[in-house]
Amino acid sequence: MKRLMTCIECPQGCRLSVETGGLRVISVTGHRCPRGENYARQEVEAPMRTLTTAVLTRGLELKMLPVRTSKPIPKDRLQEAMEAVKRITLTSPVKTGAVIAENFLGLGVDLTATRELNIESRYAVWQN
Amino acid sequence: MIKRELVIVGGGPAGMAAAIAAAESGVKDILLLERDQHLGGILNQCIHPGFGLHRFKAELTGPEYADRFIKLVRDSSGIEVSLRSFVVKLTGEKRLSYLKPGALEEIEAGAVILATGARERTREMIPIPGSRPAGIYPAGLAQKMINMEGWIPGREAVIIGSGDIGLIMARRMALEGMKVKAVIEIQKTSRGLVRNVVQCLEDFGIPLYLRHRVTGIHGAGRVEKVNVAEVDDEYRDKPGSGFEIKCDTVLISVGLIPENELLEMAGAEMDEKTNTPAAPEVNLTSIPGIFACGNACKIYDLADWVSRDSEKAGKMAAEYLKKVLSNQRRDL
């Protein structure tokens, strides 16, 4: 069976033509780099997405800390992941890349901070 | 009046890249002014991935992309960062006034780089008839609310315009549990990247109505519904094609306008159609020694290109300063 899809690995957005047999990929055409072929295989076998969202904080500079999964997770677990993220409240300062939740949902990926966040400025020394 | 060699207005991707490049090109005294409490500009609210593929060969989120530049700014010698600093005045002689907590500072700059970014086009610029209820947001503002302030703007949303910010916000709102009922685009194709149509709309089953327009926004107090119609090649409504969508939130994602109030104040020539500096080359303005880069200069679709071109602005400013200095020496 032939399946058409758009590669989402980079902004080029290659149009891929994928020859499949059930859940197996036989051939991929239309990709301009090796990532396209990998994407097509993954998309047919088990679609994965990197989740980026924000975690509620208390006593820090910003009300929300942006976070990401360290690797893509199965697309059909995104909603479940969002619900788990909503149960987290961060109260201590973090550096970029800090692990917020280890082995998130048992998926073998970490939820990590994508920026640094310090204590709310009214409690901190004025830096300017 | 305090004299500074190079003053850069705006600490987003453009201003940071310009500052780093200027420092590398030998400028010893750089003042980087940022009105927010952090560097990074709009990258701070763009928490989705897609940044840095060209620049760093890695798929980073906006804050991660900003973080790499913030570290480079910190490590560069000669860059002083002043946060919570809002420039209120610029003259053609490169004199600036800026407000910071508890003070109004006045400085004379050898050269100025304006990296002031862009503003969103609003409902009034499309324009859409109807009432003026609460619940209508520019998409970037809604992005800031959700990603930085922790507010969810409503329950059921319709997005007008299919630019990248609108598509990204469709996914963001869907993830946060809102029902995104439609993205309405008057053109034949999406204005955003194809990958965003796929991963932001198709992934979440959000319908994209191409060659459609919102003909009215209605609601008493709060948005209650929008009217939608299909358009023909001349963008006229096709008779009988109208329908309505119930929603309590409308996001407007119909493009950006370069923010160049300071440049106009300084008396530079402007291209009135695009609100960009009238100049023969990217990063230049009609006033020698005043440069513009990033979205203030022209609207970019990738932050990576903003960084690349803004580095050129930093180098151009460094060259300009060297030339001025050597002319002064010759005159002596």
How would you describe what is shown here?
The complex is a heterodimer of chains A (128) and B (332). Chain A is α+β, with helices and mostly antiparallel strands and 128 residues long. Chain A contains two helices and ten strands; from the N terminus they run βββαββββαβββ. In chain A, strands 8-5-6-10-9 form a five-stranded mixed sheet. Chain A has a three-stranded antiparallel sheet with strand order 1-2-3, covered by helices on one side. Chain B has seven helices and 21 strands. Chains A and B meet through strand 5, strand 6 and helix 2 of A and strand 4, helix 2, helix 3 and helix 5 of B.
Task: Considering the chains and any ligands shown, give keywords for the structure.
heterodimer; A: 128 residues; alpha+beta; CPE0013-like fold; 2 domains; five-stranded mixed β-sheet; three-stranded antiparallel β-sheet; 10 strands; 16% helix; B: 332 residues; alpha/beta; FAD/NAD(P)-binding domain; seven-stranded mixed β-sheet; five-stranded parallel β-sheet; 7 helices; elongated
* Named CATH topology of the largest domain in chain A: CPE0013-like fold
Oligomerization status of the protein chains: heterodimer
Q: Count the E strands of chain A.
A: 10
| Helix content percent band of chain A | 10-25%
Low-confidence stretches of chain A: none
The major beta sheet of chain A can be summarized as: 5 strands, mixed
Largest sheet of chain B: 7 strands, mixed
Structural class of chain A: alpha+beta
- What's the CATH H-level homologous superfamily of the largest domain in chain B? FAD/NAD(P)-binding domain
| Element order of chain B: H for helix, E for strand | EHEEEHEEEEEEHEHEHEEEEEEHEEEH
Question: Strand content of the residues of chain A, in percent?
Answer: 25-35%
Distance between the termini of chain A: 62 Å
Encode the helix/strand succession of chain A as letters.
Answer: EEEHEEEEHEEE
